[in-house]
Design goal:
This protein has 2 helices and 9 strands. It is of the alpha/beta class. The protein has 2 domains: 187 residues, Leucine-rich repeat, LRR (right-handed beta-alpha superhelix) (Alpha-Beta Horseshoe), CATH 3.80.10.10; 38 residues. Strand 1 and strand 2 form a beta hairpin. It holds the Pfam family LRR_14. This is Disease resistance R13L4/SHOC-2-like LRR domain-containing protein. Keywords: Leucine-rich repeat, Repeat.
């Protein structure tokens, strides 16, 4: 009798003990406690990390992690959380309890959506979401009033998310390589933008760029006025009352 083929199992990943995790603790140049578990072939976040939750920075990038456990909310004082280059498909709602978080890096994962609870990270200044499978952002992102930088490159956005227009302190938005719809795509066909596309506030432009922007606004305004007057004249001939 022929032997059946063995079913391929998911890689278990490397087991991290508490002692190994303690040996991965670092002190940054500015005196912050950093737990560096990058490049460790971890497939699941070790439960023993709950005993090291008083760190300032946690780096679990470049691993095999598919899920972030709910106990992530025990890292209440954490300021930097780096989870880039894993296999994350979703985030727990408990991530919204990391009230002191300044930097959240979720690049190069498999995220298709984000929890509304991200809007609770009111101190967040940098949010990296590039290289995922996102086509929308939760409206709660508009509550991140301290956000300066948001990376959305290499996703599935067809237009600039409306919620980011509410972020008054935002300095840069990276929408590189998204299938953005252009104004002349009446058939709703998408075109891939290969060049860099950034959104910045006017105050961060140089004097030359601000002058060009002002002239462009004036040009558009004049065009609109001419079109309006032309419409009035045309309708006068047609007997339309204004």
């Amino acid at each position: 009798m022929a032997k059946g083929k063995k079913k391929k199992s998911q890689p278990k990943g490397k087991t991290i003990t508490l002692k190994m995790a303690q040996n991965s603790m670092e002190l940054t140049v500015d005196g912050k406690r950093r737990l560096n578990l990058s490049f460790q072939e971890i497939a699941a976040v070790p439960k023993c990390l709950q005993k090291l939750c008083e760190v300032d920075e946690l780096d679990m990038s470049r691993n095999l992690i598919r899920k972030i456990p709910d106990f992530i909310d025990q890292f209440v004082g954490i300021r930097v959380l780096d989870l880039h280059s894993n296999y994350l498909e979703e985030l727990p709602v408990t991530i919204g309890r990391l009230q002191n978080l300044l930097v959240l890096n979720l690049c190069n994962n498999r995220l298709t959506s984000l929890p509304n609870e991200l809007g609770l990270l009111t101190k967040l200044q940098t949010l990296h979401l590039g290289l995922n499978q996102l086509d929308t952002l939760p409206a709660s992102i508009g509550l991140l009033k301290e956000l300066r930088h948001i990376g959305l490159s290499d996703n599935r956005f067809t237009r600039v998310p409306g919620c980011i227009s509410r972020l008054n302190n935002l300095q840069k938005v990276n929408l590189d390589r998204n299938p953005m719809l252009t104004e002349d795509t009446a058939s709703q066909e998408s075109v891939m933008i290969s060049e860099s596309l950034y959104v910045v506030t006017e105050s961060f432009l140089c004097e030359h760029c601000r002058k060009k922007l002002k002239n462009k606004k004036l040009e558009i305004s004049n065009i609109n006025k001419v079109q309006f007057i032309a419409a009035i004249v045309a309708n006068m001939f047609l007997g339309v009352k204004w």
